[in-house]
Structures are given as structure tokens and as C-alpha cells.
């Protein structure tokens, strides 16, 4: 396993609770839109066994052509040891990256794509939207729907509707409105529905989409293949 040690180049306070850490791009570190990596703090591999409390699985919120690895995360006042250390890191401090994988690359199948997310889950979709806007080939249109009760909506410069490019973006601040909007989107029985958020959020979306007639193969999750049976049980029927 290759470990890429790199430095924090810039820290952006996206909202009072959300930060983006822009890391120097290590040589040989490549990824595609929708990818995630393991972010590790100094000392994680100092002992005989890795200290897993100093490692987290994180989505990459940038594209390679931005020449930086972006990690966007919510850090609440009461948080884990990992987030507490991360919150106090400064520009120039070192972190490690390893194991890159993408579960949610853009499917260019001449269909509509719907991006369903909760809060900071939008960070996973930022590079997908950028990739689409740069090259819309074989995608009919993209619609993003994000729920965030804080109303401190993320990436409003990117997630801004551009009808001429067949991209629309929508934010809501409560679950009732959110699920009503999902039902409307599910009227597109041929669409692809990408879902990112907590496991509870994902399950609620799957149930609602399946109830509206959307097939499991139309629902794309940021989960490894071995995890999918937990969300799509074989015996499940709607």
C-alpha cells in the first residue's frame, strides 16, 4: 500500500461548521470524480499497528485538474479525536493519503441524473458537477437536490442553476419539502439517482424511490459493492 504524505496548502471555512482542506497534490496521486480516499493524521502508523482513530474515509471534493486534493468535512463543537485534531491543523502541517476508490463516477448513458444529498454530502457531488459542466457528453441533464437545516448551503458558486447547460440546483431546509421533491423527481422512471448521506438518509431515500417505481439498478450509492446488500436486501419488496 502506497502512502502519500502531503501538506495542507489552504484551509477554507465554508460555513461555521464546515471546512475544506486543500492539500498539495502528491506526485502520482490520481483519481476520478466521486472518489474517496483515506485521510490519516501524523502518528497513525507510528506503532506496530495503525492507529485507526487517526484515519478517516473521506470524499475528495476536487478534480485532478484543480491541482489540489480537497477534503471537505463538518467539524462540530463536540467531535471525535480525529476531527478535534483536524480542526487545529494549520497550513503547512502534514497529513497522509492512501487507498483511492470511486463508487459514484458519472454514468454517461444519455439519461437524466439526480444528485440527492444531505448537508456536507454535497462535497462528494461537487466534482461530478464540475466534470459534467466541463464535458456534458452522453448525459441529458443533471439536477441536484440538497437538504441542509442549517441553511448554510455549500458550494453555491458551483451549485447554481445553469439552464443553458441543462444543470439545475435546489436546496431545501426541511425533510418534508425534501421528500416531496424526491417524489416529483422520481416521476422520471428512466433517471439515475445518486444518493449520499448517512445510512439512515440513504435507506429513507431508497425506500421512497422504490415506492415510486425506481429500480435498484437506477440508484447509485457511495458504497463498496460488498456493502450494497445491506441497502438492497434480496428479499426486499415494495
Automatic annotation (TrEMBL):
Question: Which Gene3D superfamilies does this one have?
Answer: Nucleotide-binding domain of ferredoxin-NADP reductase (FNR) module, Translation factors
In terms of SUPFAM superfamilies, this protein maps to: Ferredoxin reductase-like, C-terminal NADP-linked domain, Riboflavin synthase domain-like
**Any GO MF annotation of the entry:** oxidoreductase activity
Pinpoint the FAD-binding FR-type domain residues. 1-107
Protein known as: FAD-binding FR-type domain-containing protein
